[in-house]
Amino acid sequence: QKNLDLLAIERKWRERWKQLKNRPKNQENKQKFYILAMFPYPSGMLHMGHVRVYTISDTISRFRKMLGHEVIHPMGWDAFGLPAENAAIEHGIHPVDWTVSNIKAMKMQMEKILTDFDWDRELSTCNSDYYKWTQYLFLKLYKNGLAYQKEAVVNWDPIDQTVLANEQVDGEGRSWRSGAKVELRKLKQWFFKITDFAEPLLKDLDKLNEWPDRVKQMQRYWIGKSEGAEFDFIVNLNRKYRETTFLIKVFTSRPDTIFGVRYLAISTDHALVSKDERKKKIHQRYLLLSISLLNNINLFFNLKYLLIGINTGLYATHPITGATIPIYVASYVVSDYGTGAVMGVPAHDQRDWNFTKANRIVDEKDIRRVVKPYSAKFIEECEVYTSYGILTSDCGQYAGMSSENAINAIVNDAEKRGYGRSAVQYRLRDWLISRQRYWGAPIPMIHCSRCNVVPVPESELPVILPTNISLTGRGGSPLKYVKDWLNTKCPKCHGPAERDTDTMDTFVDSSWYFMRYTDPNNILLPFSHDKASKYLPIDVYVGGVEHAILHLLYSRFFTKFLYKLGMYKPIHNNTQGRDEPFRQLVTQGMVHAKTFKDPLTGRFLKPEEVDLSNPNEPIQKSTRLAPEISFEKMSKSKYNGIDPEITIEKYGADATRLHMLYKAPVSEILEWEDSSIVGMQRWILRVWRLVESIANFPRQSDDLILNMSMMSNEEKETYRLINFTIKELTTIFYDTYSFNTAVSYLIKLTNHLTSISPNVNMSRPVYIYGVKCLVKMMAPMAPSLGEEFWEVLNKGRGTRTIFEESWPKVDNKGLSVEEVTCVVQINGKMRFSLQVPSSILKDNLMVEMLIRKSNNGQKWIEENQTGKKIKRVIHANGGKIVNFVFEN
Ligand code: ANZ
Ligand code: ZN
């Protein structure tokens, strides 16, 4: 019996794979299978989360290769972004050098975890042969009216000196990266008009039936469709300004509450209060002053949700009742949602109620409810009623209608008379892509004093990111200071002009990388129509749920746009349609690790502060108390980080991968524990014993004769278990990816084969078949061991790797269990009969258990005979008659 040197085996196969990679591959007539793991940011170090996601994609990829598919399993680098720039600022390393060396290190680590990526498709978003095409796609968006510039209030990170997307600001108004309190500033910015695609982005979610519901729900919420109506309120102006009419349009999701309007509220930069000269006449000076005050308060405290209001002193006319309605400027009205104006209905909206009270707009007695609950029981005057109901007698001709009917009637009448119309709003905003940063793809635009904004001609792409740069981290866009890059000629008038100094949000880079993988070396186009059409959509996309909203939404947007442009058209029309990028989405859970806390102070303990000499009873060294133990997200501050490289060197990559897959279902949190890797090592060793036992057999012809009619009952049972395992694993690898269950099934098969191995002479063909299937089925998860075992099992069979062997097939005949009728007697009297698998007929205890568990068994043996003990059980006629004899 030889022991296994796991690390030596890994090394051997990593080398061997490199040599084998260069062989020509015949991919003709094969079904394509595109499996993708989200590409990493090249931070320089793989963490356990990476190991988990690549283990999953690699396992699926290797399985598909064994099915004989043409598998695309690429890898690349999301290489632009802030950390490279911050490293440059802090340590003086150029972002290029930092990124290149990080990529090199991570690539090595990826090889160490035995991944089988298509390195010939590798790409890096910071290379000009990639970002050239990012810029090209920007121009395509621009020419199709989907990229535009506008002045916008943006989130400004005072530490990183850059604009942040809303999504990069957390609930407390802090930057997701620097943690700085975010300020609001106004800047001219580039946007992508993703809102043009709001409806298809929403509607097509219904077709993504292989996506987790949770992710689809998050996207639905993000898009936030709201149906309602717009109403026009005419502002009552002084006699002096009669010649101008001024309308305030409001958007409401509750047209049925229009009779309850008590005020209008407009945002601070609503057209009515804008500084535009013509409109300036219509309001007093103090109003502007107060609004700028309000804006400053907003800027300063970021208090978008405070109930500050300013009475404009102006009034509008209610379009139905003709009542006079006061107009307020309100901090809670968002300027870029709906129309930037709200009809305030204090009786039916909590915010409106609070605003009314805070600003004493009307007396409480004048806040009358116009919609009452369907059942009168719940009426209580002072409480805000926000549900649908029946319209009250205050609602004119609509009194007595249900909310649903009233909404239709009111909106219909409004459309007829012209003061309103039905309207749809989305919460989704256009995508702000400008970043005042160096390390990103330059926006290919030129600013000319005569021609305004001019796109860089496609033939002049890429706009190369200059490398002669000094990064200080201060003062906005670093590209502003590279004069010989900044100053250029206007493509239109050839006069002096300046380049746009913003770079693109790195989410732009990652919105189309999966398309580039289909044709990574194309120098004429981002990708060829044919190749993209052949390989898209991605069959399985694996990644973290933290990308559930933005990255996936942006990628869907790009895909829909490029499809609309006609840049590709998938050959395979799946249920999700042709313009969706990802057929199946797998979101893997996080990896958590053990932490120790001082039970008295709650402080996290460093590893050296804990005595682990008895691993089951850790002790805090200083206090000799048992520390509090919990599993938490790995982090420096919790001292629970685990370096995958160290783990791999200690336990081997195969065992580490198996552990990753076995410890938790793919989408759930995985609690990392070294002790369970040891369990995987023990299993590996047991499989090795089986492999060895066969290697020791004298060589015999390779085609095993698996003739069921010649099998004994025991052999049939072994054969059944083998087929059962193949069936279950095939479903798992195809579809459900519950690899934890897959490992359990393989362990069960191992146990069974081990139990019959001592007297295997009789059942050699089935046994050998079982071991071979076992090795094949573990190979995608533990690839170097799979190869090694396969080589031992097939000495001298040439250079095929196990991944060129075919995945085992289920023999359906072998699956079915042969059954015999077993007659059950109680005290010698025949009572019932039962079908049992013939293979277990001789296993008396097993048969007894089956009988007792059956319905009749419950009735005759377990219940009816309570109090009486079974004296003995007699098995007769080769086990086909079982007699239960009870005490008197
Ligand atoms: C009157 C009303 C009565 C409203 C009522 C609600 C309940 P969703 O569903 O998110 O679309 N609103 C409209 N524009 C706004 C803006 N720019 N800033 C802040 N609030 C705004 O919300 C639509 C509702 O939000 C609208 O319907 C409006 O208040 C408010 F019983 O109009 B409602
Ligand atoms: Zn010009």
UniProtKB/TrEMBL annotation:
Q: Which GO terms describe its molecular function?
A: aminoacyl-tRNA deacylase activity; ATP binding; leucine-tRNA ligase activity
Residue ranges of domain Methionyl/Valyl/Leucyl/Isoleucyl-tRNA synthetase anticodon-binding in the record = 721-840
Write out the entry's keywords from A to Z. Aminoacyl-tRNA synthetase, ATP-binding, Ligase, Nucleotide-binding, Protein biosynthesis
SUPFAM superfamilies assigned: Anticodon-binding domain of a subclass of class I aminoacyl-tRNA synthetases, Nucleotidylyl transferase, ValRS/IleRS/LeuRS editing domain
EC number(s) reported in the record? 6.1.1.4
Q: Which domain of life is it from?
A: Eukaryota
Catalysis performed (reactions): tRNA(Leu) + L-leucine + ATP = L-leucyl-tRNA(Leu) + AMP + diphosphate
User: What is a single cellular component term in the Gene Ontology annotation?
Assistant: mitochondrial matrix
Top enzyme class, one word, equals: ligase
Subcellular localization, as worded in the UniProt entry: Cytoplasm; Mitochondrion matrix
Q: Where is the Leucyl-tRNA synthetase editing domain?
A: 220-414
Q: Name one Pfam family in it.
A: Anticodon_1
GO annotation terms (biological process): leucyl-tRNA aminoacylation; mitochondrial translation
| Aminoacyl-tRNA synthetase class Ia domain span | 428-593, 632-668
Domain Methionyl/Leucyl tRNA synthetase per the UniProt entry, residue ranges: 34-172
Tell me which family the UniProt entry assigns to this protein. Belongs to the class-I aminoacyl-tRNA synthetase family.
Cite the HAMAP family for this sequence: Leu_tRNA_synth_B
The molecule here is called: leucine--tRNA ligase
Query: What is the scientific name of the source organism?
Result: Rhizophagus irregularis (strain DAOM 197198w)
In the record, what lineage is assigned to the organism producing the protein? Eukaryota, Fungi, Fungi incertae sedis, Mucoromycota, Glomeromycotina
